[in-house]
Amino acid sequence: MPASEVIKKAARIVLNGGVIAYPTEGVYGLGCLPDDWHAVDRLLSIKGRAIKAGLILIAPDYELVAAWLAPTQQEYERITAATHSSIDAPVPTPITWVVTAAPDTPDWLTGGRSTLAIRLTEHPIVARLCDKIGS
């Protein structure tokens, strides 16, 4: 099956509430729509992960995770500096950032904390999946 068809199929699964495995820079990750509680609950169950552990949102650019965040000026400046040009540029080496979460970010993402972990990545499959899903 061509890569574009695999991306389309994976996107359909996620958009219909499913959980998928996908490659990242270091390991395979499990993913779903972050705002779909039932999908997140299934992901947590598959991983054997407690909700209080929180999750990492992964995206090719800041814009796709911005709605979940309320970064301090210092957090914003650190991420901006790391991207070397703008907040929307992908990070050359994936870094997991712990950033102040927006007030309405669900506890199932933050683990009940006031922060949220995000990873900006250049991985081509992650980028294509996120673009196709819009999340």
Could you name the key traits of this structure?
135 residues, two-stranded antiparallel sheet, alpha+beta, three-stranded mixed beta sheet
Descriptive notes:
Strand 1 and strand 2 (28-31) form a beta hairpin. The chain has 5 helices and 5 strands; from the N terminus they run H-E-E-H-E-H-E-H-E-H. The two termini are 24 Å apart. It has 135 residues and is α+β, with helices and mostly antiparallel strands. The strands form 2 sheets. The chain has a 3-stranded mixed beta sheet with strand order 3-5-4. It has a two-stranded antiparallel ribbon with strand order 1-2.
In brief:
By secondary structure, the protein is of the alpha+beta class. The chain is built from 5 helices and 5 strands.
Numbering strands along the chain, what is their spatial order in the largest sheet? 3-5-4
Low-confidence blocks of residues: none
Q: Mean pLDDT across all residues, rounded?
A: 90
Q: How many helices does DSSP assign?
A: 5
The total of beta strands comes to 5
Shape: globular
Distance between the terminal alpha carbons, to the nearest Å?
Answer: 24 Å
- The percent of residues in helical segments reads 25-40%
Backbone structural class: alpha+beta
Percent strand: 15-25%
Specify Rg, calculated over alpha carbons: 15 Å
**Largest sheet descriptor:** 3 strands, mixed
Topology as H/E string? HEEHEHEHEH
